[in-house]
Amino acid sequence: MMPGTARHDREMAIQAKRNLSKTTDPVERLRLKCLARGSAGIKGLGRVFRIMDDDNSRTLDFKEFVKGLNDYAMMIDKEEAQEIFRIFDKDGSGTIDFDEFLVTLRPPMSNARKEIIMQAFRKLDKTGDGVITIEDLRGVYNAKHHPKYQNGDWTEDQVFRAFLDNFDSPYDKDGKVTTEEFMNYYAGVSASIDTDVYFIIMMKNAWKL
């Protein structure tokens, strides 16, 4: 599977909790609160917002924003939530664009890191349609080495599905991983790795790039 991912996740969560006590920037605080839940933390918040966006406007008003944070059990007081909302509501329209919100919340990554993540994505996305599915994985990922396949617990497809679920959000595991989800996942992992060089080596080893 992905070597080191669980360990990076744990390290990142610990680091995020530690940094929380040091920062007063409201956006950074929300970012850290998400990262304290592991690599899929920011993506999970995105899913909550998407579910709440009943009219598919891809925007949220303040009430929806606060409800989303509460549904995701983010403990943020109203003043701080208002401050975050104001930062994102640049035009003062009373709504925020949640795609923009999620991209801003993602820990910043260098172009070198984004490029290597996209290389891994393209390698896995055999069909080249921008989504990784079980079909894509058949040619690139050998399920037969997986311990649960070897002891007869899982079929090959179950191994593939578990693999995809790593990158999918905890709330909406649909067996498909988009570029955005893959990027979000690795933005989380990336936050716990200090140097580009180390991140790139880790990716190259993990995906044989």
TrEMBL record:
Q: Pfam families annotated for this entry?
A: EF-hand_7
- Keyword Calcium listed: yes
Transmembrane segments annotated in the record for this chain: none
- InterPro entries attached here? Ca-bind, EF-hand-dom_pair, EF_Hand_1_Ca_BS, EF_hand_dom
The entry's keywords: Calcium, Metal-binding, Repeat
Gene, per the UniProt record:
CAPSL
Endpoints of the signal sequence = none
Ranges of residues in domain EF-hand: 40-75, 76-111, 112-147
Q: What is this protein called?
A: Calcyphosine like
Q: Which Gene3D superfamilies match?
A: EF-hand (1.10.238.10)
The Swiss-Prot or TrEMBL record annotates one GO molecular function as: calcium ion binding
